[in-house]
Amino acid sequence: MRTAIGVDLGGSHVTAAVIGEDGKIFRQHEVDLDDRSFKNVVGVLIETIEQALKDPEAQDVAGIGIGSPGNIEARSGAVLYSPNFGWTDVPLGETLRSHFDHPLFVGNDARCATLGEYTFGTGKGTTNFVLLTLGTGIGGGIVAGGELVLGNRFGAGEIGHHQIRPTDGFICSCGKTGCFEAQASGTGLIRHAFAVAPSFPRSKLLDVDRDKLGSKKIRKAAQAGDLHALAAWRGFTGDLALGLANIVAFVNPELIALGGGVSTAADFMLDAVRGRVDELTTMVPRGTTRIAVAQLGNDAGQVGAATMAFRGGLTTGRA
Ligand SMILES: [Zn+2]
After folding, report:
1. Using CA atoms, how far apart are residues 21 and 24, in angstroms rounded to an integer?
2. 3-117 and 122-295, same CATH topology
3. Which residues pair with 81 in a beta bridge?
4. What is the predicted pLDDT for the residue at 165?
5. Which residues surround ligand 1, an ion (CB under 5 A)?
6. What three-state secondary structure class fits 74?
7. Which has the closest alpha carbon to 114: 292, 309, 308?
8. What distance in angstroms lies between residue 97's CA and the mean position of ligand 1's atoms?
9. Residue 210 Cα, ligand 1 centroid: separation in angstroms?
C-alpha cells in the first residue's frame, strides 16, 4: 500500500506518522523539541522523519508532508513568518528537500489539520467546511467549493485573529484587543474565570498556581455546577458563539467542526453555542450551518500533512 509521512511540528515536540491513502495511521514517532532555533528544528525534523521512513509500512512512500506553524509560501515551503518560533523567511522546505529524495511539502499546521479533518474526519462528504481548533490559541481553516482557501499570500483562515471585542476584550498574543482567540480559546476560558472572579469572593476555583490552572479544570467545575465556573463558561461560550456567527456570515459552510481540548465536552459546549449562533445569524438562512465536534483530534494535523503529500500540495491547484 502506498503511504505518506505526515509530520506535525508542534511547539514542544515533532510527531511523524506513516499514513495510508485511506487516512489510516500505521505508526507515530515523537521527538521532543526543546530549542526552537531553525537549525535545531531542522535536525529534529530530519531525525523524526528518518525514524518513520524505517517503518515496514514505509516501503512505498509517495511523499512527505509537514505542518508547521506560521505563514508559509506553499510552493517553496518557506516559513515567511512564525511568531511562535521567532522565524522570519526561513527556507524550511528547501533545506529539508536537500536531505530527502521523496517529494516534500510544507503547509501551515492549522490548514493541514483542516485538510485532514475535511478529507477523513467530520468534514468528509461536505464541500464547504470550517475547522476551528480551540487550544492555547485558535487555529482554523476554510474549505470552500471543495478547496482549501489559502488566500492571496497564504494568510486565509486566520480566524483566531478577527476581533470580536475590540473595546472590552482581553489582549491577544498578536497585540490586538479582543481577538476571537483571546476570548474563545482554552486560554480565553481561563481569562474569563479571572475576569468574573471579583463577583465570587468565596470561590476556590482559582486557588491554584496560575501555571497549573487549565481550561479543563474550569470546564469540569462548570459541568459540576460551580457558579464561578459557570459564569466564566457563559462568557466564554458567548464569545465563541459571536465568532461562529461571524464565520457563518462570511462563508455559510455546511459544517463548522470544533476541535482541541475544550471541545472534548461536546454536548455541554454545543448546547451552549448553537442557540446563540442562531440568534446572531440574520442574513444567512438559519440552521444551514451545522456545528459539531471534530473527529480526528490531535491526529488531524499529521493526517492532513500526509494528505497534502499525496495530493502534491494543500490544494488540487498544487498550491
Ligand atoms: Zn490576535
Report:
1. 7
2. yes
3. 71, 88
4. 98
5. 161, 172, 174, 176, 179
6. coil
7. 308
8. 33
9. 22
Distance 191 CA to ligand 1 centre (A): 15
- Please give the C-alpha separations between residue 88 and each of 37, 73, 79, in angstroms, as whole numbers: 11, 12, 7
Tens digit of pLDDT for each residue in 46-98?
A: 999 999 999 999 999 999 999 999 999 999 999 999 988 999 999 999 999 99
Cell of 56: 515496514
Q: Answer whether CATH 3.40.50.150 is correct for domain 3-117.
A: no
Tell me the per-residue pLDDT of 258-279, one tens digit each, with 9 for 90 and over.
998 766 788 899 999 999 999 9
Hey, what CATH topology would domain 122-295 get? Nucleotidyltransferase; domain 5 (3.30.420)
3-state secondary structure of 21: coil
Domain ranges in the chain are 3-117, 122-295
* 30: its cell numbers: 515523537
Residue pLDDT, tens place only, 178-224 = 999 999 999 999 999 999 999 999 999 999 887 788 899 999 999 99
